[in-house]
Amino acid sequence: MTTIATAMIIGASSQLSKELARQLATQKVKLLLFVQQPELLTEFAKTLPVSVEVLPLSIAEPAKLIEQITTAWQQENGAHLVIVNTGMNGYDATLPWQLEQDIIDVNVKGFAAICHCVFKLMTEQGYGQLAAINSIAGQRGGPSMAYHASKAFAANYFEGLSMHAQRLKLPITISDIQLGLLDKAALQQNQFLLAPLDKVAKQILIALQKGKRRVYVTKRWRFVAWLNRLLPEYIYNTRHWKPKKNQRK
Ligand SMILES: NC(=O)c1ccc[n+]([C@@H]2O[C@H](COP(=O)([O-])OP(=O)(O)OC[C@H]3O[C@@H](n4cnc5c(N)ncnc54)[C@H](OP(=O)(O)O)[C@@H]3O)[C@@H](O)[C@H]2O)c1
To answer: Measuring from atom 10 of ligand 1, which residue has the nearest CA?
Structure first.
Protein backbone atom coordinates (compact mmCIF):
# COMPACT_ATOMS: atom_id res chain seq x y z
CA MET A 1 0.00 0.00 0.00
CA THR A 2 1.34 3.47 -0.88
CA THR A 3 1.76 5.49 2.30
CA ILE A 4 0.93 9.17 2.74
CA ALA A 5 2.65 9.92 6.08
CA THR A 6 5.08 8.46 8.61
CA ALA A 7 4.38 7.88 12.29
CA MET A 8 6.56 6.62 15.11
CA ILE A 9 5.02 4.84 18.09
CA ILE A 10 7.44 4.73 20.99
CA GLY A 11 6.57 1.95 23.45
CA ALA A 12 4.61 -0.06 20.92
CA SER A 13 4.02 -3.43 22.54
CA SER A 14 0.90 -2.67 24.59
CA GLN A 15 -2.63 -3.52 23.41
CA LEU A 16 -3.44 0.18 23.02
CA SER A 17 -0.35 0.95 20.92
CA LYS A 18 -1.06 -2.06 18.70
CA GLU A 19 -4.60 -0.81 18.13
CA LEU A 20 -3.25 2.67 17.31
CA ALA A 21 -0.83 1.04 14.84
CA ARG A 22 -3.66 -0.96 13.22
CA GLN A 23 -5.84 2.14 12.75
CA LEU A 24 -2.94 4.28 11.47
CA ALA A 25 -2.04 1.52 9.01
CA THR A 26 -5.57 1.55 7.56
CA GLN A 27 -5.08 5.31 7.03
CA LYS A 28 -2.00 4.55 4.87
CA VAL A 29 0.52 5.69 7.47
CA LYS A 30 3.97 4.14 7.37
CA LEU A 31 4.98 2.95 10.86
CA LEU A 32 8.13 2.85 12.92
CA LEU A 33 7.47 0.92 16.10
CA PHE A 34 9.95 1.25 18.98
CA VAL A 35 9.94 -1.52 21.58
CA GLN A 36 12.25 -2.94 24.17
CA GLN A 37 12.18 -6.39 22.57
CA PRO A 38 11.67 -6.00 18.80
CA GLU A 39 11.49 -9.77 18.23
CA LEU A 40 8.20 -9.86 20.16
CA LEU A 41 6.53 -7.53 17.66
CA THR A 42 7.71 -8.86 14.31
CA GLU A 43 4.72 -11.21 13.82
CA PHE A 44 2.28 -8.40 14.63
CA ALA A 45 4.09 -6.06 12.21
CA LYS A 46 3.58 -8.57 9.38
CA THR A 47 -0.21 -8.39 9.86
CA LEU A 48 -0.31 -4.66 8.99
CA PRO A 49 -1.02 -3.58 5.39
CA VAL A 50 1.73 -0.92 5.30
CA SER A 51 5.50 -0.74 5.54
CA VAL A 52 6.43 -1.29 9.21
CA GLU A 53 9.80 -1.22 10.91
CA VAL A 54 10.27 -2.56 14.42
CA LEU A 55 13.15 -0.89 16.21
CA PRO A 56 14.83 -1.30 19.61
CA LEU A 57 14.28 1.16 22.45
CA SER A 58 16.54 1.30 25.51
CA ILE A 59 14.36 3.39 27.75
CA ALA A 60 16.55 3.01 30.84
CA GLU A 61 19.56 4.47 29.00
CA PRO A 62 18.66 8.01 27.83
CA ALA A 63 21.84 8.57 25.77
CA LYS A 64 21.29 5.29 23.91
CA LEU A 65 17.59 5.89 23.29
CA ILE A 66 18.30 9.37 21.92
CA GLU A 67 20.77 7.78 19.50
CA GLN A 68 18.22 5.09 18.51
CA ILE A 69 15.51 7.65 17.76
CA THR A 70 17.86 10.05 15.97
CA THR A 71 19.30 7.31 13.75
CA ALA A 72 15.83 6.09 12.74
CA TRP A 73 14.69 9.68 12.14
CA GLN A 74 17.62 10.36 9.81
CA GLN A 75 17.18 7.08 7.93
CA GLU A 76 13.47 7.73 7.38
CA ASN A 77 13.85 11.45 6.60
CA GLY A 78 11.79 12.38 9.66
CA ALA A 79 8.21 11.72 10.68
CA HIS A 80 4.90 13.57 10.69
CA LEU A 81 3.63 12.11 13.94
CA VAL A 82 5.31 10.68 17.03
CA ILE A 83 3.19 9.02 19.72
CA VAL A 84 4.93 8.39 23.04
CA ASN A 85 3.21 5.46 24.73
CA THR A 86 5.87 4.41 27.23
CA GLY A 87 4.72 4.19 30.81
CA MET A 88 5.16 2.12 33.93
CA ASN A 89 2.87 1.75 36.92
CA GLY A 90 2.93 -0.36 40.04
CA TYR A 91 1.80 -0.44 43.64
CA ASP A 92 3.35 -2.14 46.66
CA ALA A 93 2.06 -1.15 50.11
CA THR A 94 5.53 -1.76 51.60
CA LEU A 95 6.77 1.12 49.40
CA PRO A 96 10.07 -0.31 48.11
CA TRP A 97 12.37 2.39 46.69
CA GLN A 98 13.22 0.22 43.67
CA LEU A 99 9.65 0.50 42.34
CA GLU A 100 9.68 4.28 42.73
CA GLN A 101 13.03 4.47 40.97
CA ASP A 102 11.88 2.27 38.08
CA ILE A 103 8.74 4.37 37.55
CA ILE A 104 10.77 7.60 37.66
CA ASP A 105 13.34 6.14 35.23
CA VAL A 106 10.69 5.17 32.66
CA ASN A 107 8.02 7.88 33.15
CA VAL A 108 10.22 10.88 33.93
CA LYS A 109 13.81 10.37 32.76
CA GLY A 110 12.97 8.19 29.76
CA PHE A 111 9.91 10.26 28.86
CA ALA A 112 11.82 13.55 28.95
CA ALA A 113 14.70 12.11 26.91
CA ILE A 114 12.31 10.84 24.21
CA CYS A 115 10.24 14.03 24.01
CA HIS A 116 13.22 16.40 24.15
CA CYS A 117 14.94 14.45 21.35
CA VAL A 118 11.82 14.30 19.14
CA PHE A 119 11.01 17.99 19.68
CA LYS A 120 14.54 19.02 18.65
CA LEU A 121 14.29 16.83 15.55
CA MET A 122 10.92 18.37 14.69
CA THR A 123 12.30 21.90 15.07
CA GLU A 124 15.04 21.02 12.56
CA GLN A 125 12.40 19.48 10.27
CA GLY A 126 10.20 22.56 10.69
CA TYR A 127 6.95 20.76 11.53
CA GLY A 128 5.43 17.73 13.20
CA GLN A 129 3.07 16.48 15.86
CA LEU A 130 4.27 15.04 19.15
CA ALA A 131 1.68 13.25 21.28
CA ALA A 132 1.89 11.48 24.62
CA ILE A 133 -0.53 8.92 25.99
CA ASN A 134 -0.71 10.47 29.43
CA SER A 135 -3.12 9.92 32.32
CA ILE A 136 -5.66 11.84 34.38
CA ALA A 137 -3.77 10.30 37.33
CA GLY A 138 -1.42 13.29 37.00
CA GLN A 139 -4.07 15.67 38.29
CA ARG A 140 -3.87 14.52 41.91
CA GLY A 141 -1.60 12.50 44.14
CA GLY A 142 -2.36 8.82 44.62
CA PRO A 143 -1.18 5.66 46.37
CA SER A 144 1.33 4.98 43.57
CA MET A 145 3.12 8.24 44.38
CA ALA A 146 5.76 8.19 41.65
CA TYR A 147 3.20 7.23 38.97
CA HIS A 148 0.78 10.05 39.75
CA ALA A 149 3.63 12.56 40.09
CA SER A 150 5.23 11.37 36.85
CA LYS A 151 2.01 12.00 34.92
CA ALA A 152 1.90 15.56 36.26
CA PHE A 153 5.51 15.91 35.09
CA ALA A 154 4.53 14.72 31.61
CA ALA A 155 1.63 17.21 31.39
CA ASN A 156 3.84 20.13 32.47
CA TYR A 157 6.67 19.05 30.18
CA PHE A 158 4.25 19.10 27.25
CA GLU A 159 2.91 22.52 28.21
CA GLY A 160 6.50 23.78 28.13
CA LEU A 161 7.20 22.20 24.74
CA SER A 162 4.02 23.77 23.37
CA MET A 163 5.27 27.19 24.55
CA HIS A 164 8.59 26.59 22.78
CA ALA A 165 6.80 25.63 19.54
CA GLN A 166 4.90 28.94 19.72
CA ARG A 167 8.07 30.90 20.54
CA LEU A 168 9.78 29.37 17.50
CA LYS A 169 6.65 30.08 15.39
CA LEU A 170 6.79 26.53 14.04
CA PRO A 171 3.81 24.33 13.15
CA ILE A 172 4.68 21.73 15.76
CA THR A 173 1.62 20.41 17.59
CA ILE A 174 2.02 19.10 21.12
CA SER A 175 -0.88 16.85 22.14
CA ASP A 176 -1.45 15.61 25.68
CA ILE A 177 -3.83 12.62 25.65
CA GLN A 178 -5.33 12.35 29.11
CA LEU A 179 -6.37 8.74 29.34
CA GLY A 180 -8.83 7.50 31.96
CA LEU A 181 -7.99 4.65 34.23
CA LEU A 182 -8.75 1.88 31.74
CA ASP A 183 -7.24 -0.96 33.75
CA LYS A 184 -9.19 0.03 36.85
CA ALA A 185 -12.42 0.30 34.87
CA ALA A 186 -11.77 -3.13 33.31
CA LEU A 187 -11.02 -4.60 36.71
CA GLN A 188 -14.25 -3.27 38.17
CA GLN A 189 -16.25 -4.08 35.00
CA ASN A 190 -17.56 -0.53 35.30
CA GLN A 191 -19.63 -0.04 32.14
CA PHE A 192 -19.80 3.73 32.66
CA LEU A 193 -16.03 4.02 32.57
CA LEU A 194 -15.05 1.04 30.43
CA ALA A 195 -14.57 1.63 26.71
CA PRO A 196 -13.51 -0.80 23.97
CA LEU A 197 -9.90 -0.38 22.89
CA ASP A 198 -10.81 0.39 19.27
CA LYS A 199 -13.01 3.27 20.49
CA VAL A 200 -10.18 4.58 22.70
CA ALA A 201 -7.71 4.44 19.79
CA LYS A 202 -10.25 6.04 17.41
CA GLN A 203 -10.88 8.96 19.76
CA ILE A 204 -7.13 9.46 20.20
CA LEU A 205 -6.51 9.56 16.44
CA ILE A 206 -9.45 11.91 15.78
CA ALA A 207 -8.12 14.28 18.48
CA LEU A 208 -4.66 14.15 16.89
CA GLN A 209 -6.08 14.89 13.45
CA LYS A 210 -7.83 17.91 14.93
CA GLY A 211 -4.51 19.04 16.41
CA LYS A 212 -5.86 19.11 19.98
CA ARG A 213 -3.49 20.40 22.62
CA ARG A 214 -5.13 18.36 25.40
CA VAL A 215 -7.91 15.82 25.21
CA TYR A 216 -9.65 13.38 27.56
CA VAL A 217 -10.14 9.84 26.27
CA THR A 218 -12.74 8.56 26.37
CA LYS A 219 -14.70 11.79 26.53
CA ARG A 220 -16.57 10.93 29.72
CA TRP A 221 -13.27 10.97 31.65
CA ARG A 222 -13.30 14.76 31.26
CA PHE A 223 -16.07 14.80 33.86
CA VAL A 224 -14.14 12.51 36.23
CA ALA A 225 -11.04 14.67 35.78
CA TRP A 226 -13.03 17.83 36.48
CA LEU A 227 -14.53 16.27 39.61
CA ASN A 228 -11.09 15.02 40.73
CA ARG A 229 -9.66 18.52 40.52
CA LEU A 230 -12.61 20.02 42.36
CA LEU A 231 -12.83 17.69 45.34
CA PRO A 232 -11.29 18.83 48.60
CA GLU A 233 -8.65 16.43 49.92
CA TYR A 234 -10.85 15.16 52.75
CA ILE A 235 -13.29 13.78 50.17
CA TYR A 236 -10.78 12.90 47.39
CA ASN A 237 -8.74 10.82 49.85
CA THR A 238 -11.20 7.97 50.33
CA ARG A 239 -9.27 6.67 53.35
CA HIS A 240 -10.86 9.50 55.31
CA TRP A 241 -14.37 8.16 54.82
CA LYS A 242 -14.12 4.44 53.96
CA PRO A 243 -15.05 2.14 56.87
CA LYS A 244 -11.84 1.04 58.59
CA LYS A 245 -12.45 -2.68 57.81
CA ASN A 246 -12.46 -1.90 54.04
CA GLN A 247 -9.19 0.01 54.12
CA ARG A 248 -6.11 -1.71 52.75
CA LYS A 249 -3.17 -1.89 55.10
N1 LIG B 1 -3.76 1.15 30.74
C2 LIG B 1 -4.35 2.08 31.48
O3 LIG B 1 -5.32 1.85 32.20
C4 LIG B 1 -3.82 3.49 31.45
C5 LIG B 1 -4.62 4.49 31.99
C6 LIG B 1 -4.17 5.79 31.94
C7 LIG B 1 -2.97 6.08 31.36
N8 LIG B 1 -2.20 5.10 30.87
C9 LIG B 1 -0.92 5.46 30.30
O10 LIG B 1 -0.99 5.28 28.90
C11 LIG B 1 0.27 4.87 28.40
C12 LIG B 1 0.09 3.58 27.66
O13 LIG B 1 -0.44 2.61 28.52
P14 LIG B 1 -0.73 1.12 28.05
O15 LIG B 1 -1.69 0.56 29.01
O16 LIG B 1 -0.98 1.14 26.61
O17 LIG B 1 0.64 0.37 28.16
P18 LIG B 1 1.60 0.01 29.36
O19 LIG B 1 1.48 -1.42 29.63
O20 LIG B 1 1.38 0.95 30.50
O21 LIG B 1 3.02 0.29 28.72
C22 LIG B 1 3.26 1.08 27.62
C23 LIG B 1 4.65 0.85 27.13
O24 LIG B 1 5.58 1.29 28.12
C25 LIG B 1 6.74 0.48 28.05
N26 LIG B 1 7.12 0.01 29.39
C27 LIG B 1 6.30 -0.42 30.35
N28 LIG B 1 7.01 -0.78 31.43
C29 LIG B 1 8.29 -0.57 31.13
C30 LIG B 1 9.51 -0.76 31.82
N31 LIG B 1 9.55 -1.26 33.05
N32 LIG B 1 10.64 -0.43 31.20
C33 LIG B 1 10.61 0.06 29.97
N34 LIG B 1 9.50 0.26 29.24
C35 LIG B 1 8.36 -0.06 29.82
C36 LIG B 1 6.42 -0.73 27.20
O37 LIG B 1 7.22 -0.58 26.08
P38 LIG B 1 7.65 -1.78 25.13
O39 LIG B 1 6.67 -1.69 24.05
O40 LIG B 1 9.01 -1.46 24.69
O41 LIG B 1 7.60 -3.04 25.92
C42 LIG B 1 4.94 -0.61 26.88
O43 LIG B 1 4.59 -0.90 25.56
C44 LIG B 1 1.20 4.78 29.60
O45 LIG B 1 1.90 5.98 29.72
C46 LIG B 1 0.25 4.61 30.75
O47 LIG B 1 0.80 5.10 31.94
C48 LIG B 1 -2.61 3.80 30.88
So the answer is: 133
How does pLDDT run across 161-191, given as a tens digit for each residue?
999 999 999 999 999 999 997 655 555 556 6
The residue segments making up the domain with residue 146 are 5-246
Number of domains in the chain: 1
Helix (H) or strand (E) holding 186: helix 182-188
Q: Count Cβ atoms below 10 Å from residue 6 Cβ, excluding itself.
A: 20
Q: Which residues, given as ranges, of the chain have pLDDT below 70? A: 182-194, 239-249
Question: Measured from the CA of 59, which atom of ligand 1 is nearest?
Answer: 33
Q: Which of 57, 133, 150, 182 to mutate to test the pocket of ligand 1 (most atoms within 8 A of CB)?
A: 133
- 6 forms beta bridges with 30
Asked if 218 and 191 touch (Cβ cutoff 8 Å), the reply is no
List residues near ligand 1 (CB under 6 A): 11-14, 16-17, 35-36, 57, 59, 85-89, 102, 106, 133, 135, 179, 181-183
